[in-house]
């Protein structure tokens, strides 16, 4: 039989190809018999085209096509013809043409697939994950992975032009139990010892700067053995970079241009540069979040000064204990039913708020459980600060712990934004959040922990606070936030051995612990370390944002479930006794 | 103090920059005091430049530089000036200029490093690996990783232009104990179960073809828990690709063009296309190897027919047992001392040859221990076939096992090529080896094993031999060989479920074993599989070849020793009891 060699892709044929002899290969999307003809929509990665089997053109092909069903893989040779006006299908990009088949070769048969290759096929995600190779045939999935690929391609081009080189760092590394839980890999050659899989290439990229590579990047897998939430996977991909001899502004400027380029070339979105910049403190004060969604307003206001002398005990307690009273104004929401207010009270409890106070600014006057505790002047100052008009709803949180106030109001703001459709899905708001605190105090561990990681540099002007008031020291750390999602984050690193040692001490490490865990790193900094810093992006999250999905499994070709299981291959699995013996380990249930 | 912002890289300044005010940053390569001046060679990734401190120009900088030592990190501002003719240093690319320093900032101090950043520093590899971040500062190391990066960059560009998209496959996969030993990762969520780290993305890339992605590539880490040889590492990097709707010639043609592009753009080597092609059988017959080094001749010749009736028992035994007698001619080596012949006899024993026969074609006549067993006619036929002239040395191997004959003569050929300097180090010889056997019989396991892997397609014309004579079936498999190194290999895959099942059965898998190990894959092929095939390159080996090193650790930024240990971070290491408990495993020494 004649050997067929593909000449065109299905979705790329146009009116310009009319009368051409073409060879196409692809999957049968659907088959239709009509008036003694067989019509098939043939699918490849570029799209669909209708191919027509007609006994008059080729009896052999016509006979052969009788057995063809959905998802068969075909090679066809035929001529491109223009469709008559009445048969034009505007739903198809190629809907003005079709191919009259002269030769048909069935490359593969298909059993009836467990579900059709269609968008909105109403199939449970578990089934789609089990038959991932079928689900990935959907045009939207193909498009997603094309977008993901384009992101990495543009990033690579951009970083190359800016002098970065891609250097691979190891997967089998030393376990340093600080941060999330490591995945461990038992060593066969060194009984009882383990490698860890990297949570990030952090240490190695810093060592590459010490090695003089000047500008490094890598798009690489990182792994964390954590309990998974909806937007987490055990393995995820970072766009990771590090540069020497630079400061914060150099990194922000280089990176915002990169992201603007991605949005322009992939989504045709014009991004105005520079991005907005905001300190961590400002972000918390105005939006109750270090990753504010700037697509809508509804900012937090501090009412502490106004209510500091009122007779409402909850407010008083919060304020006396160094806490605060803050609020948002949900415009036009005054008429909210009591049932919904109760829901919101439950909602804020998730964020540890003990309660929520509301003020309904009704046509007929103020309605609020705290009205009786406030003087007219206090109430009127509140309304003024909240810029409240008739019809507005003010939601207030008081707590002695400011982070509870921020967190619950920040989430309440987002919730109200969603409920009242205040978020324009077609809008992108880009933001740098700067000057994160260097340390946070962990009540659990009764010590300071690094907010970013222990290699983050304090701001020069806060250096002297390291001893007197470590909690107030700000870091040279920055996050890139798009539409309320933290897309990337990084910092300028410490490049001074003494400062690094001091940092480890503040984090509560003994000299021995420093030597044991980070000895090689502390040593490395002794031999000429350049000032350096970097940033890492979550490629999965960035792809989610750019493809408009909220399911991380949609942007990973072969993802795992929330139990870290691959439903397709059934991994993890039992292994043989022999394998375990070689690794000198035993299962202990 | 004035904030300095780098304006130029050290190695990139030229005569065109004379009189420019520049800011440079880098490491102190060396410092020299002469005539009241201080000269420093400053180093960054691009190279070295001499900077000069003169009290007349800046007393402050001059005073400050007194404390500066090797490997200090400096920022300097100064003016580029032309060196006087007598001070030109032709060893430096920037040797015609120098920079008169006006401002000096010491960015980092350095203790005396454990070794100097110099080529040929005579430091043991163990020390260099421990202080890898210093060793990587050597210009040759910087160049190696630049070359490695250029390879990946050019590959990505080329594959992109040819319609390939980069799709990531998982690191945590299911263990399928066929092939090399898996690295295992205990699951915390599923007690007693394990993930494996991938030995290759083979199964996933095939599933991507079934998913309709058409052309996939990935530059990705693969891991094998094997005892390491000099050219192996526990983790290595593959350039991996797969394409649909193609046959062998499409893949060879696309790939040889890619490799030619790499050699042209990186080494300025013109590669003539197409590459030479040779079947596996021809490669074995002519070079005794499936990866022949074609940079020199010295081909194997089959002498079986000539000596089949001679009176030498060793030859007779080999031939009667379906073996053969083959030889190489080492031109001009007849005068080799007996001691060296004895060495060669020991050498071939490594490859299981029981002995070696030699014929010295001396000025004064033939000298050979087997001369007495051969008639004059036989000897003259041998000399004729071997194209032997006076002064030549013929080395013969006989064995009942042909693979021993090939293997020992093939290695002997390489050894003689090295000893007699027949290999031109500046020459590159490119070759495709085709038509590998599909199966090899494993005496150990008493069954056929896949020579490539179980998904490799047999050649169409050999399909009927699968039942009658599986050992003789040739595969649609190919290796790319450069200078005797297997740089890449691949195959057209089986895309027919029934054939795949048959293949598993020939490999001795029971129905249950097939279902248990490869069930999801066999299922996947039921729903419309396109014909497809691919290839994978060892990036480490390719980089070694292109940078001219024979040490794989030279092309990996943070490599492991032959005990799979990282000497810098001391991985693998002990982990805490708590970590093991969470993973439900126990160490059993």
UniProtKB/TrEMBL annotation, chains A, B:
Q: What is its EC number?
A: 6.1.1.12
Enzyme class, first EC level, given as a word = ligase
Q: From the Swiss-Prot or TrEMBL record, state where the protein is found.
A: Cytoplasm
Query: Which of UniProt's keywords are assigned here?
Result: Aminoacyl-tRNA synthetase, ATP-binding, Cytoplasm, Ligase, Nucleotide-binding, Protein biosynthesis
Task: Please name the GO terms that the record assigns under molecular function.
Answer: aspartate-tRNA ligase activity; ATP binding; catalytic activity, acting on a protein; nucleic acid binding; transferase activity
The record, for CDD domains, names: AspRS_core, EcAspRS_like_N
Q: Which GO terms describe its biological process?
A: aspartyl-tRNA aminoacylation
Output the superkingdom of the source species: Bacteria
Which residue stretches belong to region Aspartate?
Answer: 202-205
- Which residues take part in binding L-aspartate? 178, 224, 452, 493
Q: Any keyword Chloroplast? A: no
Which residues are in the Aminoacyl-transfer RNA synthetases class-II family profile domain? 150-559
Query: Record's PROSITE patterns?
Result: AA_TRNA_LIGASE_II (PS50862)
Q: InterPro entries in the record, alphabetically? A: Aa-tRNA-synt_II, aa-tRNA-synth_II, aa-tRNA-synth_II/BPL/LPL, Asp-tRNA-ligase_1, Asp-tRNA-ligase_1_N, Asp/Asn-tRNA-synth_IIb, AspRS_core, GAD-like_sf
Give the chief site where it resides. Answer: cytoplasm
Hey, which family's this protein in? Answer: Belongs to the class-II aminoacyl-tRNA synthetase family. Type 1 subfamily.
Its protein name is Aspartate--tRNA ligase
Q: What is the lineage of its organism?
A: Bacteria, Bacillati, Bacillota, Clostridia, Thermoanaerobacterales
């Amino acid at each position: 039989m004649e050997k067929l060699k593909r000449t065109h892709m299905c979705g790329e044929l146009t009116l310009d190809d009319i009368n051409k002899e073409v060879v196409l290969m692809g999957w049968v999307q659907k088959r239709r018999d009509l008036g003694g003809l067989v019509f098939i929509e043939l699918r490849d990665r570029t799209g669909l085209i209708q191919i027509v089997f007609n006994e008059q053109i080729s009896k052999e092909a016509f006979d052969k096509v009788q057995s063809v069903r959905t998802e068969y893989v075909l090679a066809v040779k035929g001529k491109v013809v223009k469709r008559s006006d009445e048969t034009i299908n505007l739903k198809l990009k190629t809907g003005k043409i079709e191919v009259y088949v002269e030769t048909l070769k069935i490359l593969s048969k298909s059993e009836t697939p467990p579900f059709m290759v269609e968008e909105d096929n109403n199939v449970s995600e578990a089934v789609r994950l089990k038959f991932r190779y079928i689900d990935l045939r959907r045009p939207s999935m193909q498009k997603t992975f094309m977008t993901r690929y384009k992101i990495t391609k543009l990033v690579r081009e951009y970083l190359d032009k800016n002098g970065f080189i891609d250097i691979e760092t190891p997967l089998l590394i030393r376990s340093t139990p600080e941060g999330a839980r490591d995945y461990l890999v038992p060593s066969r050659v060194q009984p009882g010892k383990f490698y860890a899989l990297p949570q990030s290439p952090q240490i190695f990229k810093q060592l590459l700067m010490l090695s003089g590579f000047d500008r490094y990047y890598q798009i690489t897998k990182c792994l964390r053995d954590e309990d998974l939430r909806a937007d987490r996977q055990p393995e995820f991909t970072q766009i990771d970079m590090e540069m020497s001899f630079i400061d914060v502004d150099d990194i922000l400027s280089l990176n915002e241009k990169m992201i603007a380029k991605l949005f322009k070339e992939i989504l045709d979105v014009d991004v105005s540069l520079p991005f907005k910049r905001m300190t961590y403190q400002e972000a918390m004060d105005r939006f109750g979040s270090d990753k504010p969604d700037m697509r809508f307003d509804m900012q937090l206001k501090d009412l502490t000064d106004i209510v500091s002398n009122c007779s409402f005990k909850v407010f008083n307690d919060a304020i006396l204990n160094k806490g605060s009273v803050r609020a948002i104004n949900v415009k036009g929401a005054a008429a909210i039913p009591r049932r919904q207010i109760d829901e919101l009270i439950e909602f804020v409890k998730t964020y540890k708020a003990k309660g929520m106070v509301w003020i309904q600014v009704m046509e007929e006057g103020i309605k609020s459980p705290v009205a009786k505790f406030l003087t007219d002047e206090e109430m009127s100052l509140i309304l003024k600060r909240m810029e409240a008009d008739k019809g507005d709803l003010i939601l207030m949180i008081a707590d002695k712990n400011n982070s509870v106030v921020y967190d619950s109001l920040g989430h309440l703001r987002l919730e109200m934004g969603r409920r009242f459709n205040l978020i324009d899905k077609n809008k992108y708001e880009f933001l740098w959040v700067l000057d994160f605190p260097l340390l946070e105090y962990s009540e659990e561990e009764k010590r300071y922990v690094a907010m970013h990681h222990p290699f983050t540099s304090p701001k020069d002007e806060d250096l002297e606070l390291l001893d007197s008031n470590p909690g107030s020291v700000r870091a040279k750390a920055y996050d890139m936030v798009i539409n309320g999602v933290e897309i990337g984050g990084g910092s300028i690193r410490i490049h001074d051995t003494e400062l690094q040692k001091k940092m480890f001490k503040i984090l509560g490490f003994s000299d021995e612990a420093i030597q044991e865990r980070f000895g090689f790193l502390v040593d490395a900094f002794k031999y000429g370390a350049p000032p350096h810093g970097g940033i890492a992006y979550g490629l999965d999250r960035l792809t989610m944002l750019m493809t408009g999905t909220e399911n991380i499994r949609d942007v990973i070709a072969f993802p795992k479930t929330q139990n870290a299981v691959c439903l397709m291959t059934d991994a993890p699995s039992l292994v043989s006794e022999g394998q375990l013996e070689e690794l000198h380990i035993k299962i202990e249930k």
